[in-house]
Write a structure and sequence with these properties.
mainly alpha; elongated; 0% strand
């Protein structure tokens, strides 16, 4: 009750009604109505296009995963080789 907002009363103003005016050309020639462009519709996307995008995304993700696995395995091999070669030099 205390926190309820109170909206002001909306009164519609009394506007005078105006008659529509018809434009009559001053010359005697006939004018056509201005051409309006047809409404533009959104391009439709087929199910084949959606499937192609999904398959392309799966291929890209698989390639990126292969690159990551290869990089990790090369890094592990480098660490193992470094430790083996380092231990050989310490024994001499």
């Amino acid at each position: 009750m205390f926190l309820r907002p109170q909206l002001p009363d909306t009164h519609t103003p009394n506007l005078p009604t105006t008659a529509q005016q018809v434009h009559v050309p001053a010359c005697g020639c006939q004018h056509s109505a201005p051409l309006t462009p047809p409404p533009r519709s959104l391009p439709s996307v087929g199910s084949g296009a959606v499937a192609a995008v999904v398959v392309g995304g799966v291929v890209v993700v698989a390639l990126l995963a292969a690159v990551v696995v290869t990089a990790v395995s090369v890094a592990v091999a480098a660490v193992v080789l470094r430790s083996l070669l380092g231990s050989q030099h310490r024994r001499r």
